[in-house]
Amino acid sequence: MFLKNIFGLWKKLDWWGDGLGVRGKNLGFLREPKFVEAVRFAHEGNIAGWKNAGFTPEIPWRQHVCCWAASNALRLEGDFVECGVHTGLFSMAICNYLKFETKNRRFLLFDTFEGIPVEGLNDHDRGKANQMNQLYSDVYEIAKQNFKNFENVQLIKGVLPDSLNATEINQIAYLSIDLNNHQYEKQTIEALWDRLVPGAMVVIDEWHELIANKRGVQVQLALARLRAFNPGLIVWGLSATLGNLEQA
Predict the structure, then answer these.
(1) Given phi > 0 = left and psi -120 to 50 = alpha, else beta, which region is 143?
(2) How far does CA 78 lie from the centroid of its chain?
């Protein structure tokens, strides 16, 4: 009966993917040629980087949110910054969608490019990181190849937030954070908050990890601090799966 109900619900959906199903929504963006090409470009560049997983994630909904946010950020002064890159599912789509090689600004990509650092994590987070690290390998050379035609894109290899000191960042118009660990995400947000320009676009992936627990409270406090110093800040919480919808 359960499977029958699930199948019945699935048949009513207009679109399903990446743990998200929608009905009665405008899905025209999924067919926009410019966006379709950006998704294709990112997918092909990421195949080699996801060989350990046995599949390449298909995340067009999230990619469109990032492309939309980045498009709006072009109206502002400042760099684009992505913390948590792997081989560039988000940033490759953005670069292709915006023809970023023609833009007079930098896109700074921060990552270890070899998984989640486990030093300093508690037992629970270390176990979770070790489990996720089975999907990862050293992908730095793959990432370099993916962005070779974008001279204004810079890859910075290291552990966040310390690796932020590797290059000078004065103003940020677009910030994406997807580190798969609340501790590193909180530290990175706090390290970058004073560099966000008014109206800056901030995209935080895996928001479902942060709702209704101590980690969520810490991030909410950090974002409240950001807004106190930057009232024009725009924050989007993005999640592929959201099991606790009522709390959200």
Answers:
(1) alpha
(2) 18
Do the beta carbons of residue 143 and residue 109 sit within 8 Å?
Answer: yes
- The answer to whether 109 touches 175, Cβ cutoff 8 Å, is no
Distance CA 206, CA 141 (A): 26
Cα–Cα separations (whole angstroms), residue 203 to 8, 59, 87, 223:
33, 15, 18, 12
Q: 95-121: string of b/e by CB count within 10 Å (b at 16+)?
A: bbbbebeeeebbbbbbbbbebbbeeeb
Report pLDDT digits (tens) over 126-144: 998 999 999 899 999 999 9
The alpha carbon of 110 is separated from its chain's Cα centroid by a whole number of angstroms, namely: 12
User: Strand 107-111 and strand 79-83: pairing?
Assistant: parallel
| 19 to 59, 63, 70, 239: CA distances (angstroms) | 9, 14, 23, 9
Whether the CB-CB separation of 157 and 111 falls below 8 Å is answered with yes
The residues near 123 (Cβ < 8 Å, ≥ 6 apart) are none
What confidence tens digit (pLDDT) does each residue in 160-202 have? 999 999 999 999 999 999 998 888 988 998 999 899 999 899 9
Asked if 156 and 150 touch (Cβ cutoff 8 Å), the reply is no
The rounded Cα 187 to chain-centroid distance in angstroms is: 16
How far, in Å, are 36, 41, 116, 144, 212 from residue 84 at the CA level?
23, 19, 9, 15, 23
Report the SS3 class of residue 168.
coil
Distance (Å, whole) CA 235 – CA 223:
8
